[in-house]
């Protein structure tokens, strides 16, 4: 079996791939804000109004003038005259004068003249229409000022941000019900192999159902792309060339799940290299699983060649797709990937000079997470189904011992 002559680290391979892609801005579209979860902003969004738009209380208690409470304590309370109650959703129809207080609830609008709120538990009613204040408050205490969150004209969300639930809530709070976002990149997905059949067909001898186009398609969808499946292509050069040409014309990126044999991988790389410059950039990565991975750019469009083994394909796609789909979507603010530190429950050998990614189950303890490796073969997809994440063994390690702490990338 022919060995790969040049193996790059995953980080170097990804950098080479990204550097070969242009920085062109994606096309945009206008959508309702409520549908924008996971989408990427095209332009910065500015606040059309302050938030909060009125001074409000953050607690249940009494609106007061802070100066009237100075020096108040349990042994020497301040006495204030109760002059009203602030109704929720209504502007107070009175002005607070010195020596006065008004009952107010969380979120209620501060009456004119008040500059602080005393918490309910720091007061007590003595006589009808009078309260004792048992604790002094400072100006602004238990109060949100106008524009304390954002001021009019503030850029609340920059361009190139993938929107999370917090951003959706913030947009709604400002009354921004429509916005312009990048169109989701369309990703063509091709499965190849004479032994591969669609999932809805009964298995014959020596056949396997297509897993990769569905697991990779689901990952593309989760990462903000639109998966477009192009079916199953037989292991023939002409057939692959025809489908790949069509997929490249209709998509911003293409992923090919090829067979595991050396001849099939060479066929895939050869066809990819014909599809336009610069062609194949990386053929072989110093990683397990996923050594035969192919990275190419064809006429400005990224093409990813994956092993036919489901575990290898999904692990490698999880490593490489996020950054590329972010670039195609115009993401400028990169957020860290979800990961935890965990201690190994057994010794785990590895080959020096190669990054290993091992599926693990995580068990939470009072001292932190434990990682229990799931021993697998790269064509057994349910080893990933049973896993919570993949544990990374660095290339400079010859393995990790029992109790060693390692990084686990959550699936």
Overview of the structural elements:
It is built from seven helices and 28 strands. With 411 residues, it is α/β, with parallel strands linked by helices. The protein has four domains: 164 residues, MoaB/Mog-like domain (Molybdenum Cofactor Biosythetic Enzyme, Chain A, 3-Layer(aba) Sandwich), CATH 3.40.980.10; 52 residues, Alpha-Beta Complex (Molybdopterin biosynthesis moea protein, domain 2); 89 residues, Molybdopterin biosynthesis moeA protein, domain 3 (Beta Complex), CATH 2.170.190.11; 72 residues, MoeA, C-terminal, domain IV (Beta-clip). Strands 7-4-6-5-9-8 form a six-stranded mixed beta sheet, with no helix packed on it. A six-stranded mixed beta sheet has the order 16-13-17-21-20-18, with helices on both faces. A five-stranded mixed barrel has the order 22-25-24-26-28. Strand 8 and strand 9 form a beta hairpin. Helix 3 packs parallel to helix 6 and helix 4 packs across helix 5. 40% of the residues are buried. The model has no long low-confidence stretch (mean pLDDT 93).
Based on the structure given, which CATH architecture of the largest domain is correct?
3-Layer(aba) Sandwich
CATH class of the largest domain, please? Alpha Beta
State the distance separating the first and last CA atoms: 33 Å
Strand content: 25-35%
Derived from helix and strand composition plus strand pairing, the structural class reads alpha/beta
Continuous helix count: 7
Main beta-sheet strand count, sense and barrel state: 6 strands, mixed
Q: At the fourth CATH level, what is the homologous superfamily of the largest domain?
A: MoaB/Mog-like domain
Please estimate the helix content.
10-25%
Count of discrete structural domains: 4
Q: Calculate the mean pLDDT score and round it.
A: 93
Say how many strands there are. Answer: 28
Task: Output the strand order for the largest sheet.
Answer: 7-4-6-5-9-8
CATH topology of the largest domain: Molybdenum Cofactor Biosythetic Enzyme, Chain A
